[in-house]
Amino acid sequence: MLENLKQKFPNAISEKVETADISQFAWFEDSMGGILGIPRFEISAEEIRILELLFPSSLNKTNLITFTDTSWNTFLTKPNAQLPLTSWENVRFIHFKLTHNDFSHADFEDAFLAFVPSDAALIWEDDMEGILIETNKAEALSNKELLAISSTLESDFYVKTRMFTGRFHHVSQELHHHKTQEKKCFESAQAELPDLKVTDLADIVPHLLLKHQSNTNIEWYINQVLGRTRQDTELIKTIKTYIECNSNATLAAKQLYIHRNSLQYRIDKFTERTGLDIRNFRHALTAYLLILLHD
User: Which Pfam families match (predicted)?
Assistant: First the structure.
């Protein structure tokens, strides 16, 4: 069967000595002792889960490198700690919280990391909370993908999970501040949006603004969500007008004196830059409130 898999994944290798970094591969072993390493960029998380059912002892965890980095753990948990030496330029934090700690943390970590890019790192803050550090070297995990991962982890470890996805930040001492702010947002999301397993800043901003946040916090929300887009006055005016027209593209284009296709192009550009899909009510509300605050 491994030979058939090799035909489907031509870049797969049969010996771990063929690569300098075995963590870049998902490993499978048959009953005869044959092994196969499939490059993680060629195989989906769902395919890995299916193959693990066919090869119960396939993933040789003992030979995988550890992803828990004590330097990152120290930096994120202790104020004024030294920034870790890293080649990463930009990272984001995916915060997670579990309902109990009655499981093997090592097994949970291995299972979680099997779904994410190989250069991600997982940091435990305590027995039930942690942070997945994700770089922008590969395509970022979407909230939909994280929801699927969460469901799989729940079924495997009988533990409910909540996740919060932060924004990408340049690797600097400011990361500690961003992490602290995102942690507060995550805590609010757990209280205000209990039915959502995976949330982000766009989901929780309206709730945060209702709590009379300080100007410093509001400025941080604007920077994180709108970023440099707020300097594009034409684009901001377009999005504001579109939302005020109840997301009626024809009416908005008429008021802006532009073609409907031009309006659609600007909406797509705004979504690409900010991650806000303003066709979604919650995202449209967040965008509108932040635009008003910025104005």
Answer: HTH_30
